[in-house]
Amino acid sequence: MQRILNGIASLPEILDEVGCQKLFLVIDSSFPFLNIKDAIESLPVEEKVTFSDFTPNPLYEQVCKGIDLLKASNSDAILAVGGGSAIDVAKCIKLAVLAQEGNAAVIPPLVSQILHIDGSRIPFIAIPTTAGTGSESTHNAVMYYEGVKQTVTNDGVLPDYAVLEPSVLKTLPLYQKKCTMMDALCQGIESWWSVNSTDESKEYSRKAVELIMTNWRKYIFDNDDEAAAQIMLAANYGGRAINIAQTTAAHAMSYKITSLYKIPHGHAVAVCLPEIWDYMIDHMDQVKDSRGQMYLARTFMDIADAMDSGNARIAISSFRQMMLDMGLSNPVSENKEEDILVLSQSVNPVRLKNNPIGLREEVIRELYSIIVKYN
Ligand SMILES: NC(=O)c1ccc[n+]([C@@H]2O[C@H](COP(=O)([O-])OP(=O)(O)OC[C@H]3O[C@@H](n4cnc5c(N)ncnc54)[C@H](O)[C@@H]3O)[C@@H](O)[C@H]2O)c1
Fold it and tell me: Per the confidence metrics, is the pTM higher than 0.85?
């Protein structure tokens, strides 16, 4: 069971509780600029070993370097401080070190089939420095393996402690704030309509969506501290929601947009979501969720309510207006026909399966042709 704590001040107590002497620190390139840098560097442990040799959207080869370093260091706890990428790297490192299969343990097909890891053997603490992925509260880790974005899913990678310290968002560049917040909003919406949703996950989804809709303007345009705290909480709820219900078609269709147009994850997901939602409203008879068409219509209405909109079409307009107000535009292509083909062949089938309305290949091509604009 994960513990979620507020504020960096709880960290020395956590380290004491888990009996940490040698700390393995996973940080990204933003660490030197973070306001919590000094507090982390002065933590009361005998030794700290630091790993930061990875990029956003981390690669398998980079993760392997971290695995070797943790093995050599004999550390007794892992602390990840950073965005979703840093937390995902730390998760993969932990998984591989604990698994008999070693580095190969993080190769996705192996993980989903055979690994049962006792995650309690190395305590793992995560401090998110973006408010978006919710990775601090999920059992997923994302990395690139042989050029393809892969998700490693294993209960052993869920951090034992998630520490939410919203003041770290002060240094997050404005564009990153927008993209990461939209990732959280899409997670809230998608987990809500996912075929895997439960009463518990829907409660988390609702909190994520409501908190973002209430606070996003103050967070983005006024740099307001209280709004930042609410958005960080929302992102965590989004993480808890997808940890149960998972994401759906907007995430499934976004991955190749990120690599093809070099658009951050949250931005790529957010350009897909309104078009998919619009299509779903027009094709309610093709519902895949066993709870049926009426259930799905009610769910769309509940989401619209949380977005303070009278119905789902109005909610889609609000979502599009939000993107416009933040200046988040759709990708523009030089070779649209060619791109549509590449994009439609790259959709993640696992995430797509969670969508409440089936999307055939020709529908996906049609949706991409709306999402991607001509130069
Ligand atoms: N594991 C999961 O459950 C899950 C869920 C959603 C997304 N993801 C993955 O997470 C990754 C995206 O994570 P992200 O959106 O948090 O971005 P990120 O971790 O890739 O970071 C983006 C950039 O922001 C910088 N940064 C982070 N925090 C900062 C701060 N406070 N101040 C200044 N700069 C800062 C980083 O150094 C980096 O350059 C993607 O790979 C995505 O697929 C994982």
Answer: yes
